[in-house]
## 1
Amino acid sequence: MTTTQTRTAESAAGVVTEFFDRYRAHDINGMADLCSINASLSYVPVEVWGKQRVLRGDGKVGTIGKPLWTGLVTAFPDLTNTVHTVAANDDGDVVAEVDIEGTQQLAWGLIRPAGQHYCEPHLFVFHVGPDLLIDSMTGYWNDAGISQQLGHEEVD
Amino acid sequence: MTSSQTETAPGSSAPASPATTVQAFLDAFARRDAAGALALVSPEATVTVHPLGIGGRGPGVLGVVLGDMIRAFPDLLVTTGRIITTGDVVTVLIKVEGTQAADYAGAINQEKHLDIDQAWRFTATGGVITGVSAYWCQQQLYRRLAVKRFDAIAIA
């Protein structure tokens, strides 16, 4: 990615498209390379209710995103995605509708591996900075859909 | 509902921008005015509410979703966070809050408080909404409503 390229809606969309290309290739470091060093990440559905605190999917790409992505491709070795729409503007906002799917081979959170397959629609909101690096991303999806497809019927 | 109202820009007969049209929809929804919101939706609009597994065309489909929410949570509070305009696509990040007062999505009323972050992706042209896709996590929703299992949603 050249840093001399001007940010436009098209170039910002290109960064996000490349991000999902690398996700499809399980290139976790490559995904992170498309993000700024301090890029923020919010995976809204991710929340784990413990006895004394709730762990949420909010933080940084380096500390929350990479471990989550690595865990996903480990638990779902055939993890892949299909990008349906990418809409962008010249301010670097990019909204992508993406199906993510995979077959569970290892435990994922509280879900035991039963060889089940899931496919769930996601909506991601990115911001791509003037340096053409992603500086924030927010993801929305229905975890109940994933749990049920994997055979896990407990809410927690 | 057989026809949709066309939103116009203030002081002008020109159709409102996509963002203005969606803002008017959100304003009506925030007033719990489902009819006012649905008046902005084209009869041919594509509607997909992923967490509820609802899809179809026109305001009637969306009306079921809005109506159920307003009926079950009479103190419904809809707070708009970000509005992201990317051409004729307008994505809004909202928080929906309320206290359950009737059955909702299969969950019996236990008078629990709901707070859930949602993303709604609209397409709008000519002052009319032509597409809606809604994303949120139904697992979070059921957790808030004290549901324990997906296969026994109605059991307290």
Note: The CA atoms of residues 72 and 156 of chain B lie 17 Å apart.
## 2
Amino acid sequence: MKLHEYQSKQLFAQYGIPIPRGRVAMTASEARLIAEELRGRVVIKAQVLVGGRGKAGGIRLANSPEEALETATQILAMQIKGLPVRKVLVDEAANIQSEIYLGVTNDRAARRPVMIASAEGGVEIEEVARTAPGKIARIHVDPLLGLREYQARDLAASIELSRDHWRAFIDIARGLYDAYRECDATLAEINPLVVTKAQTLLALDGKMVVDDNALFRRPKLAEMRDLDEEAPAEGEARKYGLSYVKLDGSIGCMVNGAGLAMATMDVINLAGGAPANFLDIGGGAGADKVAAALEIILADQSVKAMLLNVFGGITRCDEVARGILIALQDMPTTIPMVTRLVGTNEDEGRQLLAEKHMITATSLMEAAEKAVALARQGAGA
Amino acid sequence: MSILIDKKTRLMVHGITGREGLFHAAQMLEYGTKIVAGMTPGKGGEWVLEGKVPVFDTAKLAVEATGANCSVIFVPAKAAADSMLEAADAGVALIVCITEGVPMQDMMQVRAYLDQKGTRLVGPNCPGLLTPGECKVGIIPGHIAMPGGVGVVSRSGTLTYEVLYALKARGLGVSTCVGIGGDPINGTSFIDVMEMFEDDARTESVVMIGEIGGTDEERAAEFISDKMSKSVVGFIAGRTAPPGKRMGHAGAIVEGGSGLAVDKIKALEAAGVKVAAHPDAIAELAADRSRKARRRTKR
């Protein structure tokens, strides 16, 4: 789960990391009010969960409350990479001398956290990694020991930060690591961390991604989820414990198991079609879950054909068939459906669906080819 | 011969009184796995599965009383890290964690601790292990595989079942099937299993099923090219997955240009691995390779 900049910075502040004075606004007049309180120059920043806000014109300076009103009005009317801007952060503008990058994330390959720093702040770290890999310093952290003071000092020395700022940098690095640990983050990033002309360090921008699997023990963070920022069907799927990702194609897929679901998408592609979604009903899904899944898929107007691919292990094919029948009763459809049921109770499952005029297939390739042909007919009609 | 588990495996089931734990313990027992103990705090002294398996309050007590040398974990995600650590402290050599949804920071700590103790972990979020005809630890349906010479290693569950089923349909048996799981931080990697298959006398060739996310497959490709004499057939799921989106498995995500299916396929092919274009073709290729391998040994 991604957090907004304003949420991430508020969390950072709780760990002693200095952030600019400022607040989030839902309306332009609110933004004006905040600018009045802050006095002087402010920066108005679109709060959307995508990168590249600055380039899109979603981050702009305002010299007066009137200008803040005008700028906020414009930004709140924007869409950035397809996402409407619903909130802006109004921050005191900083006098920047130099910009640093500081972040901590899980290194999958090393199986431990890695803290990354660079003197090239203010641009995406992936970009720096491509253009100037020598400018990036990394330190792996023992998850049982946590980040030690000397490690933070090593980073400061590696990026040739002036010694005057080491104390402040070390405190910020340790604060960031603690925030990462205690929020169960998979990424906590300050970019840029700036040295101001007044010779202080300040976290101008912040980003945090929280491990969805840890939200059960972070109820306050779970409440921070911005429901406006996800496709409604993805939220609906989550309620039923289904994994669903909306895609651009016309063939709705329902599969048990993530690997098999991905492979099913790939085979549809090989057969010349395009999947409308990724959907994993998980292991041992009951009829109610299957019914919910089918309703989510059929609610998508771009679906022209359906492919049901189930390999029964723990999941029983008859249970899946029963779920399909329930959903079809609630939601009759003319969308053609190709079904492939293999494994535990496959005969019972096939019998249950026999009366429903479904197209059956034995191999995955055959199922995909049939679904692609049907989707073409559906799109032509 | 086989890897990781065989007839000598003495299994302890964590969470044996839970719905999942009990169901799969019954299946494992039926398959012939020696389940010597169950573990559920507060239920010590009870017997389950028609009085065949004693339940203990702690892993330490279970190991002392039964000599269990392998643990399989079915407890809920919030308790899974504790169960893995408890099993390791009790002295079992191999832990298989089926549980899905274990927080990543828990896994980093567990991994660091288990590495210090020298305990092997398979999973989490995995279907477990199957040595056909001898022992099953986890949830892989037993009837879909038969004993033989193909070693199977995979990050997926049901996709692996598809492959086992197709191998059996072609008369190909399996030495051991290892589900390493779909999480980003896990216990056993492709390379670990490849090393074991390379050293295992029964394994003649290997099927490896990967997916998008991370660089485990790329590193395995390096190992295959440098160290492996046995032939490997591969498949990578997720060619059509969009970047930045998690595809069901916590570890299946393309991030910052890393973890792409095309890169993995390229790396494997460069290492001499025959990569199947679709799942149905995996068993075909494996059958083809195994025929060639047999011809070579006959000559």
Note: The first strand of chain A starts at residue 2 and ends at 3.
